[in-house]
Design goal:
The protein is mostly helical. It has seven helices and no strands.
Length: 172
């Protein structure tokens, strides 16, 4: 048991050693300063694109943790969240209203659906279908609400439920 803990500790120290690099953090600060300076000079909102790239890189880091060892399936969750945040940050300046909120929930739901689909050493993670379904449903509701689709969906849903009840009564 102790040897497993030592191995895990050594792997995590190697994995996050790059966070201690002063050069990395200095370069990121320089990149951020240049991005925001360009935003003020040319007037193009670079902030969303900048954060999209940062979140995308973070997603790649977590994805590499999973790819290097398939037993670390948990790394897919922060990877999916980071990729979703990258998309939301990048699209926020182009999509008005709450549409990005729907995209956010859909991205999180697809992350859990991916966890449910990919095989692990313990078998398939069937439990992940529950948060996947809930989050995808929430994403569709938020997206539908922001696009004023509810005015059409609610009456159609009532009609379909009514048809179901009539059809079920006639079969018996």
């Amino acid at each position: 048991m102790e040897t497993i803990q030592i191995i895990i500790q050594e792997e995590s120290e190697k994995m996050f050693k790059w966070l201690e690099s002063r050069v990395l953090w200095g370069a990121l600060l320089i990149l951020a300063g240049l991005a925001f300076l360009l935003q003020n000079i040319i007037g193009f909102p670079i902030g969303g694109i900048f954060w999209g790239v940062i979140f995308g890189i973070a997603g790649l880091v977590f994805l590499s943790v999973y790819i290097s060892n398939r037993q670390h399936w948990w790394a897919l969750i922060p990877a999916g969240v980071m990729f979703t945040l990258a998309i939301v940050a990048g699209l926020d300046q182009f999509i008005s209203g709450g549409g990005v909120g729907g995209i956010f929930f859909l991205g999180l739901g697809l992350t859990f659906a991916l966890i449910a689909l990919l095989p692990t050493s313990q078998g398939r993670m069937r439990w992940a279908w529950i948060p996947a379904g809930v989050l995808i449903f929430m994403g569709m509701v938020v997206f539908a609400a922001t696009e004023n689709i509810f005015g059409f969906l609610w009456p159609i849903a009532l009609i379909l439920v009514g048809v179901f009840f009539v059809f079920r009564a006639l079969i018996r």
